[in-house]
Write a structure and sequence with these properties.
This protein is of the alpha+beta class. It has nine helices and ten strands. It has three domains: 126 residues, no CATH class; 56 residues; 86 residues, Arc Repressor Mutant, subunit A (Orthogonal Bundle). The strands form three sheets. It has a five-stranded mixed sheet. Strands 6-10-9 form a three-stranded antiparallel sheet. A two-stranded antiparallel ribbon has the order 7-8.
């Protein structure tokens, strides 16, 4: 099948289970693109892009089936802005085992291999459960005492198992509530810092050079001057990152039009902001240490 199914389903916003989840969709075991991105350490938009390319390729994908779905996330107003939070709907896909295999085919490494095996096991377990559900129940001879005893024992075992499962579920709920309380505390403590960073971030979570300095509590001009010493160089009147730092993912370069002239704009990525925060703090510490080692006349001690 070379096209995605037309119907779309709204799913929960987050997935928190520690093992692969394979769900039944129209009687077929399916995996979720969000969880695949989480387990394999990939960005969800990159996973979606790969699936979109497969669906749009026009190739015969055999038994692969991709089912479009969606989920909602609450978006809070930025710091200093008025208004209530609003819900934003995002895309995702659900896919059967054949489609899953196509998506993760290029994922390599030990972690990827472990999750491929875990998903294969989850798909097999779901298929086994489906076959058990579909298998016809053997005819019971109500005149056979042994058969009746076996039936009663079976029901007793199921009752005991159900009680044990209920007890485990209650315990899991207690643990989940405790973890939720801890998570809410962490969110409350970190929200001011997150909102502080967000007020300087542009669309896509990128920062221009001066706003990156502001986000780090550094003087913007001083921060840019510091970047020029090691990370940037002047090209055609614009400050451009050196190639190794672009490859490291610290910066992105975009072309903007200023007075009908195309210019390069250097932007700091979220990962780059974290990296530069440590480097800036280290540089400032070294500067203070060097200053403390000078005497009153400015000579080294």
């Amino acid at each position: 099948m070379s096209k995605a199914d037309n119907h779309s389903t709204t799913l929960p916003a987050t997935i928190t289970t520690p093992t692969p989840v394979v769900m039944l969709v129209d009687g077929e075991p399916m995996a979720d693109s969000r969880e695949i991105s989480l387990r394999f350490g990939k960005r969800h938009d990159h996973v979606l892009r790969s699936i979109d390319a497969l669906v749009a390729s026009g190739e015969d994908l055999g038994y692969a089936r991709f089912a479009p779905a969606s989920y909602d996330l609450d978006v809070l107003p930025k710091n200093g802005e008025e208004g209530r939070s609003h819900v934003r709907t995002h895309r995702c896909y659900r896919m059967n085992e054949a489609a899953f295999s196509l998506v993760v085919m290029g994922f390599t490494g030990g972690k990827a291999l472990r999750w491929k095996v875990a998903y294969a096991t989850a798909f097999r377990a779901m298929e086994t459960e489906l076959r058990a559900r579909q298998a016809p129940a053997p005819a019971l001879d109500l005149n056979d005492p042994a058969a009746l005893r076996g039936l009663l024992l079976g029901y007793s075992e199921q009752l005991l198992a159900a009680r044990a499962e209920v007890a485990q579920t209650r315990q899991a709920l207690v643990v989940t509530e405790q973890r939720a309380a801890v998570a809410e505390t962490v969110i409350a403590e970190t929200r001011p810092a997150v909102e502080f960073y967000h007020q300087f971030a542009e669309a896509g979570g990128l920062y221009n050079l001066q706003n990156a300095g502001r986000a780090l509590g550094a003087p913007p001009n001083g921060f840019v001057a510091w970047l020029r010493k090691a990370y940037l160089f002047n090209q055609g009147g614009s400050l451009v990152p050196k190639a190794p730092f672009i490859k490291m993912g610290l910066f992105e370069v975009r072309v903007v039009i200023v007075n009908d002239v195309a210019r390069s704009q250097s932007l700091v990525t979220p990962w780059g902001l974290t990296y530069l925060a440590k480097a800036w703090a280290k540089a400032e510490a070294e500067k203070r240490r060097a200053a403390s080692e000078q005497d009153l006349f400015g000579n080294a001690a």
